[in-house]
């Protein structure tokens, strides 16, 4: 008689999950001081220690406390025990044929058990600069009718650290720290140049509805001993949250861009519904008195070109008239399509004629070249995968991006 061996029964064990340690990457000076205090660094030492950490985190791009040679061994061990320098996870990295890169970044949900959220950050290399387009919110509470992000239901504010971390992630992936080997590829700058030289708050979300976090992150970005991006190379774009515009000038001090898109209130009410609360006149008054505005620090007015909607030459003339007296630049943005949109991009011919009217009135009127359309990284195309597109939508989009 053969005895069949019973399969061994294993004792079910709960998998050990180490407690998550908070990360110092993205922290402000104040937060760093507080985190040092929590692990017993005496108050009199904190300022000096923050200065050391600041240098390693933001100037050198450290991802491991052990590389921080100017920090005492004892403190390095304490920091390793309690903290990390982890960045949020990159879920996907896409590289466009034109060198544009898009990172899909995962962030924890707001409540326990909630699925992680996702935001997108886009890097656009150009001949004289490298611009990073940063998100301020998951989705957007506003519902501009031509914007893909505005159709996303899921919304939460990013923390300052999550906003700053997008800059760190881009610099990590590009090798954009002193002494590191730079990434190479089509469209990227060559050795010796700074990869991320400019920041635009033009990703997902309305930055002026997440004021404090955006302010703190942009102050970290400007810090002369850290990320060292000049405030003139940082642009905050708003759809027109009028009461927060003067505060942005006073407390953040970066360049300002206004998503204008229409010259009449009835049309702007439809395109940018926030206009019902803050109409064009109030918005332009806030621009006239934007702290620091001058010919050397002009406000950029963004104008998306929508075929048959806002692209007539009469509207171009009205645009010029409206902006009279405001030190301004006008940025014409060809509409970037997305699945389900009712709008089309204006014909190229019409964009050129519109641009001529603006130019002849004395404004530089660059037309923003769409970048990264093949990877859905262009303006207004960002919408995180948290809301999955169907395979068919994806294909339709790709076809649109290719033929446009
Ligand atoms: N919420 C802010 C910043 C993010 S949007 C704002 O609205 O200003 C960045 C820019 O892209 C804005 O000017 C926005 O109006 C524009 N935009 C949105 N959807 C677009 C699309 N589908 N095609 C072209 N530009 C778009
Ligand atoms: Fe939000 Fe800006 Fe899109 Fe409007 S254009 S929905 S404000 S992200």
Give a brief rundown of this model:
By secondary structure, the chain is an alpha/beta fold. The protein is about 30% helix and about 15% strand.
Q: How does this structure look, described?
A:
It is a single chain. This protein has helices spanning 29-38, 43-59, 73-82, 160-174, 211-222, 245-251, 265-271, 280-288, 313-322, 348-360, 391-403, and strands at 89-95, 101-107, 117-125, 130-133, 137-138, 156-157, 198-201, 234-238, 255-259, 299-305, 328-334. It contains 11 helices and 11 strands. It starts with 28 loop residues before the first helix and ends with a helix. Helix 9 links the parallel strand 10 and strand 11 (328-334). The protein is globular. The chain is of the alpha/beta class. 42% of the residues are buried. The site of S-adenosyl-L-homocysteine (SAH) has 17 residues, from strand 8 and strand 10.
- List the secondary-structure elements in sequence, H or E: HHHEEEEEEHEHEHEHHEHEHH
CATH H-level superfamily of the largest domain:
Aldolase class I
Poorly predicted segments: 385-404
CATH architecture annotation of the largest domain: Alpha-Beta Barrel
**Percent of residues in beta strands?**
5-15%
How many domains would you count in the coordinates? 2
Give the CATH class of the largest domain.
Alpha Beta
Give the overall pLDDT as a whole number.
88
The gross shape turns out to be globular
Helical residue percent band: 25-40%
**Heteromolecules bound:** S-adenosyl-L-homocysteine, iron/sulfur cluster
CATH topology of the largest domain: TIM Barrel
Order the strands across the largest sheet as they lie in space.
1-2-3-4-7-8-9-10-11
Number of helices: 11
Quaternary assembly: single chain
Task: Give the N-to-C terminal Cα separation.
Answer: 76 Å
Number of strands: 11
Judged by helices, strands and strand pairing, the structural class is alpha/beta
- Radius of gyration equals 24 Å
Largest sheet data: 9 strands, mixed
